[in-house]
Amino acid sequence: MPGSALVRVSVAVAAKDLAVELRTKTAFVSSIVFAVLVLAVLYFARDATAVADLDLAPGALWVTFTFAGMLGLNRAFLLERENRALDGLRLTPASPTAIFLGKALGNLVFLGVVELISLPVFILFYDVPIWRQLPILMGVIAMATIAFVAVGTLLSAMVVRTRFSEVMLPLLLLPFLVPPVVSAVQLTWRILALRPLSELTGWLSLLAAFDVIFFTLSLLLFEAILVE
Amino acid sequence: MARRGTVVTAVALLGLVGVYVRALAFTPPDRAQGLAQKIFYVHAPVAWAALLAFAITGLVSLLYLVLRDRKLDLIAAASAEVGVAFGIAMLTTGPIWGKPIWGTWWTWDARLTFTLIIFLLFVGYLVLRGALTDFDVRARFSAVLGIMAIVLVPFIHVTVYWFRTLHPKPVLLKPDAPSMPGTMLATLLISVGVFTVLYIGFTMQRYALAVLRDVREEETAGAIP
Question: Does residue B37 form part of some domain?
Fold first, then answer.
């Protein structure tokens, strides 16, 4: 499939998923409300006189994003399982690569929207002075989300074929999230504490390497998942 | 295969008796740690065998996706199962040593965190296998997960090592000469050898069992008109 056609088909797959999403809005609304709830609950999960807001904030942000993301990921392929829509998708001329890219793009947009809406809530709840650091924090969030989506799209395609898929996804996905989430927490902590940029490079390169390697690997392995 | 596996396992278990006798009666106790150090002769080799098992699962998974030979899938599964069993031994002998020497059962040291996450990763691998019934789908999906898992290992390694580490520094595999008296080193190396043979024996038996179950499943499927 030539490059332009690949992009077109991928965007079509993503657009289909997001259109279904926008018509019901259940997943969007539930993921966002879930994120806000987790942020609120975690705020009380410490002694406020002993642990400063700023010390709690990075962990709280990433636990929230991880769980809200997991809630959203199951949806991408559960949708396809109903009425065996996945078989229909496989019958179209779309290549496995295009289907993977489309699914990943759909997930990326979905998670991006959930994160964009819960980030101001996070800033408000935890009173973190980050307006000037916002661009770099957004960059870190984008990189960690790509890592999440790269592995999550592949694993959720596998998991929907199992029994108890809702339990199975976190079980398989969480070990893979250790490097990106730990990097993201470390980076967020340094960004919020106004540390110099030189302290960020190590974790940033780890995150970037994870993105590149796992996105490529998931793309290559997806065919083995999809093709019967 | 089952009988040969039993023979190999029996040889390894005899060797294990030898390791115990040698470690307890013929190897001097550590001056600083005393008798607690003896568990090292089980802990380090069993950790080696567990990580070896996981590495083999990953490599065989890759081979399966290329060659699509059923046997390879069953070997990967057998190896992962033995690895998880060794992993449990590793994660129990560690804290038993840690309590008297470090003063705590568990600490979030780099190497502990690393092995715990790898262990959980392969528990997840076995759970995924258990949740899939179709042979072909199970083989493909678990091979994909096995490959993803070995690529993940170096990332987890770097991630947890960028935290401080408390674990004893390597005494054997390091650039300088091993920092351990000859008798202790010999006991350790014998034990590593014995646990490697034990791993091979267990995996052979587990593989033979998987083949039998596979044949049985196919017979049952064929019997249904």
Answer: yes
Assign B32 to helix, strand or coil.
coil
Token representation of residue A173: 């996905």
Q: How far is it, in rounded angstroms, from Cα B133 to Cα B139?
A: 10
ipTM attached to this prediction: 0.90
pTM: 0.89
Sign (positive/negative) of CA torsion A26, A32, A38, A44?
negative
Q: Which two tokens stand for residue B44?
A: 């380090």
Cβ-proximal residues to B187 (8 Å cutoff; 6+ apart), any chain: B19, B22, B23, B26, B27, B41
Residue B80: give the domain boundaries. 2-167+178-219
Nearest CB to B124; choose among A163, A171, A179 = A171
CB contact under 8 A, B144 and A225: yes
Whether B225 is in a domain gets the answer no
Domain ranges of chain A: 3-226
Judged on CB neighbours under 10 Å (0-12, 13-18, 19+), A90 is: middle
Total number of domains in chain B: 1
Measured CB to CB, residues of chain A less than 8 Å from chain B are: 151, 154-155, 158, 161-164, 168, 171-172, 175-176, 178-179, 182-183, 186, 202-203, 206, 209-210, 213-214, 217-218, 221, 224-225, 228
Q: In order along chain A (228 residues), what is the average pLDDT of each group of 10 residues?
A: 83 90 85 92 84 86 92 78 79 88 94 93 87 90 96 92 84 94 92 86 93 96 86
